[in-house]
């Protein structure tokens, strides 16, 4: 939300407009000089000296005729669009990019009409927001994705995985099941289909094996698409949390996941003989027996569904945003080959969940204490064990980040599974905390999160003080006292 008062906001809009007009007038003078001297070199010299101005233009109202301006003017348009979004009540659903385009197409009309009243000028700018809102739509998205695959035909892998998995607003279906459903709806006249579009989709769907579907409430088209991808990725990351990365490493939304190409094509030469080789995976996805959701407690399913439902809207609580970020860190770690990098990302996920303020001292103690509250059963022995585990995990992360160990160090390889399990358990605990703060207490702001941790820690205050003292003696120069 904008921190400017009404008068300051109006002045900022006017200054950005004047900056844009100054850039346009500058180029008008250059073009007049070109016409007078019949020599385009003056334009070329300007671009040589000011390459940032290349390709900078807006449009004459009512046409697509380009009007050149300076980069500073384009930046002013972007600032104006961001300010309009930040001052709107429905700002999460607005697209500053689209509003910038509308400004570029219409702002010269203000100059042509000779508008001089600042209040009227700002009212015209805000009408551009209304124009962008008229383009908002509710959209259902269907993304090909890599999820599960059938294991070998042996007793341990029976029954096969299900054809459909539902997590709140996100529905995963095997591609043949999805395709049959679409064709049936088309036959019944419930939906209309572009045959060419389906042909292209089928090619990708058959290759990936699954389709993830989600419907996004009305908002700007580019915001809608980004939100859909984020929610589907979050749902996949929740599945990774539920079944563990040992089985679900390659589960992903292919066009957004930072996944390495598993196909290798190479020419090799031995004794002057050149040979072509290819390697690749025939099957991708989690190798599981039966329904991976069967063992997930109903409460956790509901907590996950609540998180995804809250994510449909751009108006999210602080706790929702933090949990989404933590799940993204956890999911991204699955695509890393290096155990050291995986550990760094897992600890980043835990820090996103537990850090609520900047502290000059006790950073590591605060981290360990809050991870213990999330990842334990809140029994004294469990809390102490998890606190110590969190301290070891944080030290492994510090070894990589501060350069004392290579990211491929064997010690990190042997401990990666331990850090994975700690992170997974803490994120599962944070799903319950999110439900408590966001759904039941309605206080999932930053202050509410910090208050929850502080009040929960009071139960174990003597234990945490003892553990902090023990580690200060063991690691007197460590980050525990930073």
Write the layout of secondary structure elements.
Elements: H1 6-37, H2 41-49, E1 57-59, E2 66-68, H3 71-86, H4 96-106, H5 108-113, H6 118-133, E3 137-145, E4 148-149, E5 164-167, E6 170-174, H7 175-187, H8 195-208, E7 210-219, H9 221-243, H10 245-248, E8 264-270, E9 273-279, E10 286-287, H11 298-311, H12 318-333, H13 339-354, H14 363-375, H15 380-401, H16 410-441, H17 446-457, H18 461-474
Parallel strand pairs: 4-10
Antiparallel strand pairs: 1-2, 3-7, 5-6, 6-7, 8-9
Helix pairs in contact: 1-3, 1-6, 3-4, 4-6, 9-12, 11-16, 12-13, 12-16, 13-15, 13-16, 14-15, 14-16, 15-16
Overall description:
- With 482 residues, the protein is an alpha+beta fold.
- The protein folds into three domains: 6-133, no CATH class; 140-259 and 281-298, no CATH class; 316-482, no CATH class.
- It is 59% helix and 11% strand.
- The protein has 18 helices and ten strands.
- It has helices at 6-37, 41-49, 71-86, 96-106, 108-113, 118-133, 175-187, 195-208, 221-243, 245-248, 298-311, 318-333, 339-354, 363-375, 380-401, 410-441, 446-457, 461-474, and strands spanning 57-59, 66-68, 137-145, 148-149, 164-167, 170-174, 210-219, 264-270, 273-279, 286-287.
- The strands form four sheets. A four-stranded antiparallel beta sheet has the order 3-7-6-5. A two-stranded antiparallel ribbon has the order 1-2.
- β1 and β2 (66-68) form a beta hairpin.
- The chain is globular, with a radius of gyration of 28 Å.
């Amino acid at each position: 939300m904008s921190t400017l008062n009404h008068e300051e906001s109006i002045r900022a809009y006017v200054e950005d407009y004047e900056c844009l007009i100054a850039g346009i007038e500058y180029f008008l003078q250059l073009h007049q000089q070109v016409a007078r001297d019949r020599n385009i070199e003056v334009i070329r010299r300007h671009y040589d000296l000011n390459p940032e101005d290349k390709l900078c233009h807006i449009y004459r109202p009512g046409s697509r005729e380009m009007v050149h301006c300076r980069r500073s003017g384009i930046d002013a348009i972007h600032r104006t669009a961001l300010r309009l979004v930040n001052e709107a009540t429905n700002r999460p659903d607005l697209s500053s990019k689209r509003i910038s385009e509308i400004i570029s197409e219409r702002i010269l009309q203000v100059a042509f009409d000779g508008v001089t009243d600042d209040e009227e000028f700002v009212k015209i700018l805000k009408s551009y927001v209304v124009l962008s809102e008229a383009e908002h739509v509710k959209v259902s998205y269907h993304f090909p994705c890599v999820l599960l695959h059938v294991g070998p035909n042996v007793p341990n892998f029976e029954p096969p995985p299900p054809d459909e998995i539902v997590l709140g607003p996100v529905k995963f279906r095997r591609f043949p099941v999805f395709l049959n459903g679409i064709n049936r709806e088309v036959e019944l006249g419930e939906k209309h289909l572009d045959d060419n579009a389906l042909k292209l989709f089928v090619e990708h769907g058959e290759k990936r094996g699954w389709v993830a579907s989600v419907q996004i409430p009305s908002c700007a088209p580019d915001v809608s698409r980004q939100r859909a991808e984020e929610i589907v990725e979050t749902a996949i990351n929740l599945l990774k949390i539920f079944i563990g990365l040992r089985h679900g490493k390659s589960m992903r939304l292919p066009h957004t996941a930072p996944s390495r190409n598993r196909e290798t094509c190479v020419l090799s030469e031995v004794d002057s003989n050149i040979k072509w080789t290819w390697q690749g995976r025939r099957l991708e996805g989690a190798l599981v027996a039966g329904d991976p959701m069967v063992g997930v407690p109903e409460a956790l399913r509901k907590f996950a569904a609540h998180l995804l439902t809250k994510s449909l809207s751009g108006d999210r609580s602080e706790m929702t945003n933090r949990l989404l970020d933590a799940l993204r860190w956890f999911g991204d770690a699955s695509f890393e080959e290096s155990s050291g990098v995986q550990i760094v990302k897992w600890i980043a996920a835990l820090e996103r969940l537990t850090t609520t303020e900047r502290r000059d001292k006790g950073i590591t103690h605060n981290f360990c204490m809050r991870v213990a509250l999330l990842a334990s059963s809140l029994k004294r022995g469990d809390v102490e064990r998890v606190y110590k585990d969190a301290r070891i995990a944080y030290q492994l992360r510090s070894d990589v980040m501060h350069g004392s160990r290579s990211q491929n160090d064997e010690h990190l390889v042997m401990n990666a599974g331990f850090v994975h399990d700690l992170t997974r358990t803490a994120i599962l605990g944070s799903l319950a905390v999110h439900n408590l703060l966001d759904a039941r207490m309605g206080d999932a702001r930053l202050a509410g999160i910090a208050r929850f941790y502080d009040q929960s820690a009071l139960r174990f205050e003597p234990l945490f003080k003892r553990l902090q003292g023990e580690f200060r003696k063991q690691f007197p120069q460590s980050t525990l006292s930073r």
